[in-house]
Structure formats: C-alpha cells, structure tokens
C-alpha cells in the first residue's frame, strides 16, 4: 500500500491557489481528498479535537481514503512521555476511533531538545494500544471527561490493528539501540526530511514506512524539484518492493507547495486517487 498526502489541509494561504476561489471552507477536505489518497491530521497535535469533527471528516472523504493522526504535543512535548496514561486515554476518547477503517498510523513526534531515553520510550510504547478495540476499552476506562469539549466518543466501529510511528529530532537517537527498541515494540521510524534542520533517520523498523517531507531546501517552505521528487519516487518503489506499506506526507505548506508536490509524486508513482 502506498498513500500520499499532505500534513493538514486548512491553510488560509492555499485559498485561491490549491483551493478554487469561492470554495467554502467546509469543502476543503473534500477537495483535497479527491486529489490525494491520505491526509495527516495535525490539529490533534495542538489541541484535543471534538468527536463531532472526527465524524464529520470521515464523512467527507472516499471509502478508501486514510487519515494519519498526529498525537498531542501535551503528551510528547509537555509531559515528555512521562505520566501520560490519562492524557493518552483522553486523546483516544476524542472520537479519533470513529474514523473506522479510514484510520491510519498514529504519529508521535518528539521535540528537538528531547534525547534518547530508552526506558522512558519503552514504557510509553507499552502503553500504546495495538488494536482499535483495545484503544476503545482503554479510552473508556481511563479518560478525563473534564478535558473534553463534547461527550467522549470511544466507539470502535471496526476492530483493526492500530499502528504507531515515531518522529525524533535529536542526534542521540542515532544508535543501534534505538532501532532495536523500535523493532521490539513494532514502532515505525519516521523518515523526516527537514532541509538539514534536524537529523534524518531512515531505518526500517516495522512493516510500514512513514515519510514526512518538511521542505527540500527551506524548512516548511521550499518545494521539491523534479530531481528530488524522482529520488523520493525511487525510494518509495524500493520500500514497496520490499513488502512495506508506505505513507508519504508533504509538510512544506508555507508557500503552497505541499499539495502540488504530493500530486506530482503521485503521478510519478502511477497512483490515481480516483480509482
């Protein structure tokens, strides 16, 4: 499986460029989903979303569309993975599981100043549910209702594997012990291109590869050249040939490059989002 998409879809600067003039904001996700095969929800990183929002998003995309979901920064950046049992359950109780079979990987991104702490990582990995049915039960039992803006939605319309990936930004993770820890817990390593701002890690540690392209030469801003897109297309083909699922998201949104680069990579790989 190859999925290509963008990190987020609600950007004012995209209106009149990627989104046609006059397109209602409520139809922007529908517009993106007709042209791509996946979107990475990043609003969930900044705040807990409403259950009604998750249900609405699921209703606006095709049946075979997939959402990757970014875990809350409260867990990764503020709590730094420590004492996060209730916050994890509360996040899962916001309705994310109502995406059903449109739910793809859960992305956990660590801050640049947080180095490699194997025991802390292992304890966090042990908390992560590996099936949506387990996530539903955990959310129902452990969430904090006072943190939610609507009644909890821990529903689980389908029982399926729940996959997790980790993006790190500190050079201390460049050790075989980190790779071994990810493999032992079946956590995918995120391949993140940040225009040299942070180190890139690209070991295969699970049955999926999650790629985040933050900018070719300028973080969050520059587009990817034809040559760069050709190189990424070749890497995606190699991962697919190895039997891996591949998810690729463009996060170079500042100058409206992300959706066009995603569509250009899609074309190179012969992927038609309409079929």
TrEMBL record:
Highest taxon in the source lineage: Bacteria
InterPro entries: DUF72, UPF0759_sf
Record protein name field: DUF72 domain-containing protein
Species: Nocardioides glacieisoli
């Amino acid at each position: 499986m190859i999925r290509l998409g963008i990190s987020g879809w609600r950007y004012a600067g995209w209106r009149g460029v990627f989104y046609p003039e006059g397109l209602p904001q409520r139809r922007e996700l529908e517009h993106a989903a007709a042209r791509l095969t996946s979107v990475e929800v990043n609003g969930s990183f900044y705040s807990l979303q409403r259950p009604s929002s998750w249900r609405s998003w699921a209703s606006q995309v095709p049946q075979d569309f997939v959402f990757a979901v970014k875990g809350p920064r409260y867990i990764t950046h503020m709590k730094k993975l420590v004492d996060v049992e209730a916050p994890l359950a509360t996040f899962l109780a916001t309705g994310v599981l109502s995406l059903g079979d449109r739910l793809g990987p859960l992305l956990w991104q660590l801050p640049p100043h947080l180095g490699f702490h194997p025991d802390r990582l292992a304890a966090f990995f042990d908390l992560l549910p590996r099936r949506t049915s387990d996530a539903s039960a955990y959310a129902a039992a452990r969430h904090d209702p006072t943190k939610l803006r609507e009644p909890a939605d821990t529903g689980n319309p389908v029982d399926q594997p729940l996959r997790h990936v980790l993006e790190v930004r500190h050079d201390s993770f460049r050790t075989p012990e980190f790779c071994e820890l990810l493999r032992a817990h079946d956590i995918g390593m995120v391949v993140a291109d940040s225009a040299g701002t942070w180190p890139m890690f690209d070991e295969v540690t699970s049955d999926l590869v999650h790629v985040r392209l933050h900018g070719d030469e300028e973080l969050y801003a520059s587009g990817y050249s034809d040559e760069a897109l050709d190189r990424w297309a070749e890497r995606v083909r190699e991962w697919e040939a190895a039997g891996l699922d591949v998810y690729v998201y463009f996060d170079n949104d500042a100058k409206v490059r992300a959706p066009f680069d995603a569509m250009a990579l899609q074309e190179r790989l012969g992927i038609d989002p309409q079929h």
